Amino acid sequence: MPSLFRTVLAATALVALLAGCDSMGPSLKDSAYAMERSRAGLVRKEISLPDGTHVVYLEGGSGAPLVLVHGFGADKDNFTRVARYLTPHYRVIVPDLVGFGESSHRTDIDYHYAAQAQRLHDFTQALGLSRFDLGGNSMGGGISMSLAAQHPQEVASLWLLDCAGIAAAPPSELAKIVTTTDTNPLFITRESDFPAFLKFVMSDPPYIPGSVMNVMARERMANQPLERQVFAQIATDSVDASVKGLATPTLIVWGDEDRALSVGTVPVLKTLLPNAQAVVMPHVGHAPMIERPQLAAEDYLHFRGQLATR
Predict the structure, then answer these.
(1) Any catalytic annotation for residue 138?
(2) Which GO terms describe its cellular component (predicted)?
(3) Active site residue: 3, 103, 104, 138, which one?
(4) What is the percent of the chain with per-residue pLDDT over 70, rounded to a whole number?
């Protein structure tokens, strides 16, 4: 679920597209990411956890720390667009989860929600964060809820964007496809899968040059064995029992056209989380922070403003 590239179509990109030059893809992707990060005031950083695991993350802004967690098959740049509207208010920190992006790709560890949450906690501890706000999309939402349940005194609030990990949720289109066929729309097995993947996870996907999509597809293809390992674990995992009654103030955001996780999850979440409020975005899919970054940020800032007046 990548970042917006529309504004990056300068002369270099245009030449690449007209020439059909796939070799321009990596440099164009790097240029697009660099521009989006710069606009958001984010800087790439890295750190090693006590067990030697390497984590790469983005950080920018000042104020109360806000940690944002990407979903399955994604990376830290999924939050770059929305971070542009958040760094004026908060110290935004966006890691690549272990197994994804530029962080360590380990096949020897547990990827269930509780284990990933503890690993994320190791990261926040390494940064010296004793109390922080936490947000997550999809799998990242499940991890965020699990972390809040494990360490409620450290997580000041939750921002859940189309979050996974709720077993009591109605089955989604993705779940029905996975259980009734031998396919998974989230996996990329060849370059030509990527456009369909974008259309599946987003109702209004950003424009991405074909050469860049091919680069992103190849990155996903290279990580597919680990992705399959992770998906097999989280597909049968849930955080329902651990988060039931969790009092952490929570903003739930969902796209009403989400095909990966049913919007019917929203009322289920509200029964589990007594201090939750919800926003359902029309004509939005699985990634509101990419499809509607400014609106998603405005809703979040309003939520945080309400908390400040309590």
Answers:
(1) yes
(2) membrane
(3) 138
(4) 92
